[in-house]
Amino acid sequence: MWSSTCSKSSARLYGTIGQEIDAAHFRADDFAEFAERLQAETRLLDAWFRDDVFSARDRMGGYELEAWLVDDAACPAPVNEAFLKTLDDAMVVPELARFNVELNDHPQHLSGTALSRFEASLYATWQRCVRVAEGMDAHLMMIGILPPVREDELCPENMSDLKRYRALNEQVLRLREGRPLALDINGVEHLKTDQHSVMLEAATTSFQLHLKVRPDSAKRAYNASIIAAGPTVAVAANSPYLFGHDLWNETRIPLFEQSVAVGGLAGASHGPLRRVTFGSGYARESVLECFIENAEHYPVLLPMCYQDGLDQMAHVRLHNGTIWRWNRPLIGFDYDGRPHLRIEHRVVPAGPTVPDMIANAAFYFGLVQGLMSMETPPELRLPFAMARDNFYAAAHRGLDMHVTWLDEHRSTLRTLVLDVLLPLARDGLTSLEIDHDDIDRYLQIIEMRVAGGQTGTAWQRNWVARNGRDFAGLTAAYREQQDRGRPVHEWTPG
Predict the structure, then answer these.
(1) Hey, what domains does the chain have and what are their CATH numbers?
(2) Which of 87, 339, 342, 439 is deepest in the core (most CB within 10 A)?
C-alpha cells in the first residue's frame, strides 16, 4: 500500500480502480466535467515534470497478489465478502469476482534484506488468509488461471458487489455498443467464444510488482521494464489452461487483453489503441508521454468527479487506472505528501508459491536495475517492435522460443536468461546493495527453474500428460504442492 495525503474522496485512488467509487451510473455532463478536470490536471502534471516536483527518495519496491477462493471440488468459491469480513485486514481487499481477493503489503526500501522481508511478510499474510478460508470450508490458491473455471462461472452474478465493477462493466459494454466481448486465443489449441460482461478478466490473477523510481531515472526504468517483460513472463509462466483448452504458456496475456477489448479514440493521431496494451512505444523524453496519451487517446470509462485540488491528481490517476499497460507508470504520494513516480510491472502471474513469486520479483528488480545501469541505454539497442514481439512470443511459447536481444543478438530465452540476464540481474541487485544471501537464494530459484524447464505451466502440462484432463484433480495436486511451500522447480510430477 502506498501512502496518500489526499482528502477523503481521492485518498482511495492509488493509480488503479482498486478502490470504491460513489456512483455506478453516469450522465453526459459527468463525462464532460471529468474531461475538463482531466485536462487541467494533465497540464499541471506537465508542469510537475518540467519543474522537478517529484520525490527523489530512495528506490522502493512493492507488490499486489491476486488470489482465488475455491471449494473442496476445486471450483471457484464466491465467498470473498464473508472471507474479508472475517479476516478484517485492510491490506486484503476484494477483486472483480466474488471468488478473488487481493493481498497487499507495505513497500520496502530495495536494499539489504528487503527480499526476504517481503517473503516473510507475504507468507504470514498468506497463512492468516488460508486459516480464515479453511474456517469457511474454502481454500486459497495462487495460480494465474484456475484450470477448472467454467464460462458460466464468469457471470455478472459472481461480480463483487461494488459500484466500481458494475460501472466498469456498464461503460465497457456501452463503448462496444452492446457487442459481446469476443475471445479468440490460438495456442496449442484454439479457443473461440463470446462473453457479455467483463468477468473474463476475473479469470486472470497476477503478482503485480511496483518499483518506485527517482524522476531522473523514471524514463529509463519504464523502458527497461518494457525490455524485461518478455523474459519475466516466460520465466514466471503459470497459466496454460482455460475452459478445457491448452493455449499459451501464459494465457493470462491474451485473455486479459481481450476481456476489456475497448479501443481508444478512433480520431486520435495514431489511431485507436487497445485498453490493455503493451504500449505504443518507449518513453522518449519522460513517462509524462503516457499520461498525455491517456488523455488524448482513451475515452473515459469512470467519470467520477472529485472536488479535490488539482494537485491531488484524482482524475489523472483514476483514468490511468482504467488503461492497463503491461508496464504502467503511476503517480502516488509519499507520506509527507510529495508526489512520486513508480512503475507497475503487470506481466507476472500469481503463484506457484511465495518463494517463487519473491524470486520473480528479485529477477525483475535486478534486471531493470542492470538494464538501467548500462552506459548505452538498451532501448537504443533494441527497437520497441522487437521488445513487443519478444513479449508476445515469450507469453505464447515460453523459454524455448527464439527472441531478439540487444544489438540483434538471437537466442532462445532459456539460453538468454541463463547466460546473460541472470548475471545482469545479479549485478543490478548488488548495485542496490541487496543482501548477498538474498541475491543467491532468489536468483538460484530462477536459475534452477529455467535450467530444468519446470515453470508452473510446465508442471501443469506434465501433470495432464500423465493423468489426463482432470482439471479438478490437477488443481488438487497443484494445491497440495503449493501448500508444501517448495519452489516449483522442486515439485514432484503428479
Answers:
(1) 28-56+147-202+215-328+355-490 (3.30.590)
(2) 342
